[in-house]
Request: fold
Amino acid sequence: MLKNNLKKPIVFLSIVFALLYTLFPFLYMISVSFKVKKDIFAMPPKYFNFNPTLEHYWYTFFDQIPFFKFMINSFIVTSVSTILALIIGTLAGYSLSRFRYPGTLKYHIAFWILSTRMMPPIIVVIPIFIFFSYFNLVNTRLALIIAYTAFNIPFVTWMMRSFFLDIPKELEESAMVDGDTRMGSFRRIILPLAKPGLAATSIFCLILAWNEFLFAVILTETEASNTVTFAIALGVSQYQANWGYMAASSTISVIPIIIFAFIVQKHLVRGLSFGAMKG
Amino acid sequence: MANVIFKNITKKYDDVTAVDDFSLEVKDKEFLVLLGPSGCGKTTTMRIVAGLEQANSGKVLIDNNDVTDYAPKERDIAMVFQSYALYPHMTVFQNIEYPLKIKHVPKDKRNDQVNETIKKVQLEGLLHRLPKQLSGGQRQRVALARAIIRNPKVFLMDEPLSNLDAKLRVEMRAKLKNLQNELGITTIYVTHDQVEAMTLADRVVVMNNAKIAQVSSPKEIYNNPSNLFVAGFVGSPPMNFMPGEIKNNKFSNNYLNEENIKISDNNSSILGIRPEDMSVAQEGNIKGEVYSFELTGDSTYVTVKLGDDLIIAKTESDYKTSIGSPISLSLNKNKIYFFDSKSGNRIVA
Reply:
């Protein structure tokens, strides 16, 4: 066993290494977004010694690309699909964690819900495109909302199911005996206790919907419904790649998720339900 | 104020029968205790009254209304759970206030009622704490306060004292009995602890294997058990059982002969006698050797080896002996019970 005074530096160095490994691409992206074209391609790379410029941000917001519009589309698609997936998946998870199903049906349903995520999404993108075109949904935000909601429901269901399983069922039984309905006790007792779970799950849903590219690129092609990921990809054209623009727009697109993560951070702390039960 | 009537309640989980043809009337203001080992169906029976479980067949009547198909909230009952089931995100005040809030009782009235209730259970000064900041006994009292605030028709209590330490349990037992008497609310209380059953109950229902084994007053249950199960379950240490046969008004096995009993011949019978109904004597009718002895404070329990059987006798606290020494016991003739070992039923003269 390592002695304590040796342990600390090793732990510290491991953390530094892990952070460098994960954050370097991110920091490099930010630095590229502030470099003039010449500096982006400089060899050896210029990490700090370059003259910062805002020209790529200017280009992102005020040139031909309607980046604001794309941001708003992303906001709408992401938030609506996340809310829908949370509502449907939370109720499904609650049902799977609490109610009796005939025989082994409960496990089959749970597995079936999960199995929809077991294939790469590209397999279903063509059928979904054809299906949506029947209903004139292609090139609408609704198409993306439906698709992302469907993707997120299995995830929400499984996450919330495990959170609900941790909450003693006596709590809502007690509430029901005290005069509440099943839904009332779910809303007043169970949901507040599942807040940490909801916070964690909602972050995952937001990230998935916000970062999704494949469906965005196939189901939408007008600025009325294009999302941020699509907007970033516009930097690559047949003859050139506008790295400065892509770095700047990527940097901007990360900001909303980071802000949301900070907001829900305090709810991510678990343990509220401890102390409910035995003394 | 209300009575509770069970009519032929049966509850099955897949192949397991949890409650089998349970029929009983709990009288108005009665303190009824359901007593039995774990898995005997007592908690399921209570949950059926609460509406948290649906019986497969049979009816439940509260205050002579058929509530079999009612939701829990429509039954006007209150329940104290073994785990207390306090809402962890609410303060003591909010926990106690919850049943009234659900019923949209105006705020002033709610405040008054909460304040009145906490006095009954001595929780003053703790109103703004969260359940996790309370001790076990305090949580128990919050759960009790939440149950009594609504003045329900029936109280249901599912082993409410089992998570408390021994000293607190005795205190709370007295408190419960006093409170129930003061409020005069029909109470059904589930426990596996026979001391709780004996001390609290007006009537005890002993359950075994999903069925009622006996329903009587605590005194009757103790002094007049109707079968082997009840005789062995109630009493601590339990009743001693000695197998043997009855022939020509005489019970005998290889270490005991008991004459002048007025029971017809039975070749597989069991003689039962409680430890306190035996005494150490110079020339008793049982002779064996001391297997072990335990001083409990006010008395001594002597375990005596008779052939392959071990029986326990209760003697005075100053009784002195040593393991392995010979001992002779005499039985109190009036307190001997006989059972049929096949059916388990008591054989009465």
Notes: Residues 15 and 33 of chain B are 27 Å apart (CA to CA). The domain at 4-230 of chain B is CATH 3.40.50.300 (Rossmann fold).
